Amino acid sequence: MIIRSQEELKRYQQAADKSMKILKKLFDATVLGITPLEIDALADQECLKMGVIPCFKGVGPKNNKYRWATCISVNDTVLHGIPENKPLKKGDLVKVDFGINDDSWITDHCFSKSVGKPKPAEYRLLTVARKAIIAGANLAIVGKKTGDIGAKIQEVVEGAGFSVVKEFVGHGVGHSLHDAPQLPAYGQRGTGFTLKEGMVLCVEAQVLGSKSDRVYVDDNAWTVKTVDGSKSAMFEYMVLVAKKEAIFLTDTRHWPLF
Description:
- The protein has one domain: Alpha-Beta Complex (Creatine Amidinohydrolase).
- The chain has helices spanning about 5-30, 35-50, 120-135, 145-160, and strands at about 55, 70-75, 75-80, 95-100, 100, 105, 110-115, 165, 170, 180-185, 200-210, 215, 225, 230-240, 245-250.
- It has about 260 residues and is α+β, with helices and mostly antiparallel strands.
- Strands 8, 9, 10, 11, 14 and 15 form a 6-stranded antiparallel β-sheet that branches. A 3-stranded antiparallel β-sheet has the order 1-5-6, covered by helices on one side. Strands 2-4-7 form a 3-stranded antiparallel β-sheet, with helices on both faces.
- It is globular, with a radius of gyration of 17 Å.
């Protein structure tokens, strides 16, 4: 969508702030011994307290609607992880993707976190993934192209010896969860859709801890996993396209990585 007034921006920021408060609770709860299913229940509980709806519920095909408030993806699960009743262990790399519907204002964002201090290689994966996606999000400026964002993310990730998933992309967001334009985490500068002032974007990427970008969808038709078993990291930021610099509506850039 395109924000066309300060009133609309204020209202959307209110929704984003509510979503951030819930996401922070989920972040703090992502610790040794808790199960993803318990984190998901917490998300439901906090949504109820705030009077908002978890926006992932009901997404998907008629015969396989998504039934959870969050997507919680652990280790080699890349995204769309269905919350499991399996306690988190030391060294697990956890991605928590979450969003709300606040009276038709939709949010969508994701953090990655290691359970306990990560191994050096996994810490590097986390830092590179975050750096790349922030660098891409910073290019959400009037006149830039979607290809500029994707090319920057790909450049940082592949320059570090990692890979980006190409089957899933970032997107616009507003009164629907997935709006135009699509935002691949790869591409060529100067190509794609021209960004306009007031557009709200979800800039995201799934970064794999190897040079292979091959993934597959599990039998449940939701969960995406790496073919080679490598761990992955994912960050997602909601940003507003502006003339001078991107405005982060959901800003987790300085949250700890473990």
